[in-house]
Write a structure and sequence with these properties.
By secondary structure, the chain is of the alpha+beta class. 38% of the residues lie in helices and 19% in strands. The chain has helices at residues 13-26, 127-138, 194-204, 241-250, 256-276, 284-304, 309-326, 367-370, 377-392, 399-417, 425-446, 452-462; strands at residues 42-50, 59-68, 86-95, 106-109, 119-122, 142-143, 146-150, 162-164, 171-176, 180-185, 215-221, 224-233, 239-240, 280-281, 333-334, 346-348, 354-356. The protein has 2 domains: 13-233, no CATH class; 239-462, Alpha-Beta Complex (Aminoglycoside 3'-phosphotransferase, Chain: A, domain 2), CATH 3.90.1200. The model is unreliable at 1-9 and 74-80 (pLDDT under 50). The chain is built from 12 helices and 17 strands. The protein is globular and about 70 Å long.
């Protein structure tokens, strides 16, 4: 295996030309492809690495491919801004013939270029291929521009059977023998990925609520480094927070104890992040910048989703109140946070302990923004919106269930952090409103049937309805 993963690979334009017509059809069908609805105009090959030797019956290619598409019009700007092309990570298997068990992974049959006569397919679905990734991490291989690294204190067995998780959307994950889970970032952004950076920091702080990375791999691209994947312990037997909440709701069971424990776990993570990385005090200019950003996002969403327009003026008063408070006696701290916290980012063990995962932040936001210190209440607001989503997905709607969860979560958070998020009602309402505006735009574009869920929250927030007042 070591020979197979240490040979520099192919970097020719002919390789990309060989795959070009197939990728144009296959890529838009993938759940993690962000450019749906826009034609692909061109490809650029950023890196190409052959992970299997040329004498092998099977081939395995690792590609970073930049996909060029027409830009998305920005209603707020009144025009078409120049957007950078997205870069995607592809693992492509190469065979003369594809066995029936791998038929669902088919990309296509190559008719030209260096791969003419071969069949190419999504290699993650081939255990023999995905096993190479774990072995590369285990031996800390260097393959062309790829670097596989690990925490030498953690043992990685060499005989763990891989399987692909089907639930992923923006990324892909492989589980190895119920021992490890490897998250592969599909849309790759140069720079320090928070999903590796923050768990490593938290591991050094001894934070038990976040699985510590066991290994990771990177690609060197000029002066930049791309984080491609992170291997972490697989938390066998844990329940996804979203699925657990829906199950308890459907059974008519109270979720307050779980929500309170989750609030405590969130506060533990926030405190560990504040110890590990610098915190700042937000001054008047920073608060006004936050409020202006929220107002701008509202204006953009209202132009794209007309259903928001009747509430826009009232919602703007929420952001104006935040700016006004920032000019007064407010003394808010900002620090590194999760950045995209909701029930689906939380796992509960059979013993009732919660873990937080997926620290990548909102992938649609620039990496520099995702790595900026922010008020911890932003994470709290995201979780409160998640409780509301769960309650709204139930028939009939269960507002009392959501209210009990919200109150319990804030109480648990205060028990650990020493400060109840509800004691900052203007800040909390502003972040919850900003999140609901984001949800409206997302649902209108991707899941129109879900649009009534955030719109109901928008109506409540615009009319100053009850949220999370202190008890």
């Amino acid at each position: 295996m070591s020979e197979a993963v240490t040979r520099p690979g192919i970097t020719t334009d002919a390789l990309l030309a060989s795959l070009d017509p197939l990728l144009r059809t296959w890529l838009p069908r993938q759940r993690w492809f962000a450019g749906k609805g826009r034609p692909i105009t061109d490809f650029d090959l950023v890196t190409a690495t052959e992970l299997l030797p040329p004498t092998a019956e099977l081939g395995l290619l690792h590609l970073l491919v930049r996909v060029r598409q027409p830009p998305v019009p920005d209603p707020a700007a009144g025009g078409v801004p120049p957007l950078p092309a997205d870069c995607y990570q592809l693992l492509i298997g190469v065979r003369r013939e594809l066995p029936p068990r791998l038929a669902p992974a088919l990309i296509g049959h190559v008719t030209r270029g260096p791969l003419a006569g071969f069949t190419v397919y999504e290699a993650l679905h081939d255990p023999r291929m995905s096993g190479f990734l774990l072995e590369a991490l285990r031996i800390q291989a260097r393959v062309g521009k790829l670097r596989f690294e690990r925490d030498r204190r953690k043992a990685i067995e060499d005989d763990l059977a891989p399987r692909v998780l089907a639930a992923e959307q923006s990324n892909s994950s492989l589980v190895y023998g119920d021992t490890f889970i490897l998250k592969l970032f599909r849309r790759v952004v140069p720079g320090v990925n928070p999903d590796l950076e923050l768990p490593l920091m938290l591991a050094r702080e001894g934070c038990a609520q976040v699985p510590a990375p066991a290994a990771w791999f990177l690609a060197d691209a000029g002066d930049e480094v791309n984080v491609l994947g992170v291997l972490q312990p697989y938390l066998k037997g844990t329940a996804d927070g979203w699925e657990l909440a829906l199950r308890e709701l459907a059974a008519g069971r109270d979720f307050s104890d779980e929500a309170r424990a989750l609030g405590r776990a969130t506060a533990d993570v926030h405190l560990a992040l504040a110890r590990a990385l610098p915190t700042v005090t937000l001054g008047r200019a920073q608060v006004e910048l936050i409020a202006d950003g929220m107002a701008d996002r509202l204006d953009t969403a209202a132009k794209a989703v007309p259903a928001l327009l009747p509430y826009a003026a009232a919602l703007h008063t929420t952001f104006e109140a935040l700016a006004d408070l920032g000019r007064g006696e407010a003394n808010w701290k900002a620090q590194r946070i999760h950045g995209d916290l909701h029930l689906g980012q939380c796992l509960r063990s059979p013993a009732g302990e919660w873990s937080l995962i997926d620290f990548e932040g909102e992938p649609s936001r620039p990496l520099a923004e995702r790595r900026m210190p922010q008020p911890p209440v932003r994470d709290v607001a995201g979780m409160l919106r998640s409780f509301d989503y769960a309650a709204r997905s139930h028939e009939p709607w269960a507002p009392e269930w959501a209210g009990d969860c919200r109150a319990a979560y804030c109480t648990g958070y205060a028990e650990v952090s020493g400060r109840d998020p509800r004691m900052d009602p203007v800040l909390l309402r502003a972040y919850e409103t900003d999140k609901a505006v984001y949800e409206v735009l997302y649902e209108a574009r991707h899941r129109p049937d879900w649009l009534p869920v955030p719109l109901a929250a928008i109506k409540r927030l615009a009319t100053n309805g009850p949220a999370t007042e202190p008890h």
